[in-house]
Design brief:
Blueprint: E1 15-17, E2 20-24, E3 29-34, E4 39-44, E5 56-58, E6 61-65, E7 69-74, E8 80-85, E9 99-101, E10 104-108, E11 112-117, E12 123-128, E13 138-140, E14 143-147, E15 152-156, E16 164-169
Antiparallel strand pairs: 1-2, 2-3, 3-4, 5-6, 6-7, 7-8, 9-10, 10-11, 11-12, 13-14, 14-15, 15-16
Length: 180
């Protein structure tokens, strides 16, 4: 099927889950399209302009984070479950996005990673990143892996008393660290 679900150019990846495909466009419009090409729902977000944010789908929910907000939507109905304002330190620029983490989600920010409730977006706990990071963390087993602004690979145990479990210095430095 071919369908025109977006008002402007689609950004990033189209994400398939079940019998639906989810997209975001340059205006921050989020849309769900069926396998037969029917538009199931659309939602205008405050993430306008949207240069590189695309949907993340997990456990029956669709997440779109960008420069201004994180929106959490029920995948099938399009019902808004949560809206979390993002600005400055927490804005998702440069393709940063939320990451599924068990029954919760990881919301990266410049100086920390927020572990949030997967339905409401409310903060469950905060994990500080001492030297900051501008990237999306990865999940490895039950650990969080991220690189800080100094190029140090951090392995984080989110349940431990000392969150940073291991550090591996590298010669890599994130280029956005130089833009401030």
């Amino acid at each position: 099927a071919r369908v025109n679900a977006a008002e402007r150019r689609i950004v990033g990846n189209a994400v398939a889950s079940g019998n639906s495909v989810f997209i975001a466009d340059r205006t921050g419009l989020l849309a769900a399209v069926s396998a037969t090409g029917d538009i199931l729902w659309t939602l205008a977000t405050k993430n306008n302009p949207n240069e590189n944010s695309y949907p993340v789908v997990s456990t029956g929910k669709v997440y779109l984070s960008g420069a201004r907000e994180l929106v959490i939507i029920e995948q099938n109905s399009g019902k808004i479950l949560g809206r979390v304002p993002l600005s400055g330190e927490s804005a998702h620029l440069f393709g940063r996005r939320v990451v599924p983490f068990g029954k919760e989600m990881l919301l990266p920010a410049n100086e920390s990673i927020f572990v949030i409730d997967s339905t409401s977006g409310s903060t469950v706990r905060e994990i500080p990143i001492p030297k900051g990071s501008r990237m999306t963390p990865a999940v490895w087993k039950d650990r969080i892996v991220i690189v800080d602004q100094q190029g140090t690979l951090l392995i984080i145990d989110p349940s431990g008393k000392s969150a940073i479990e291991a550090e591996l210095p590298t010669k890599a430095v994130q280029p956005v660290a130089l833009s401030t």
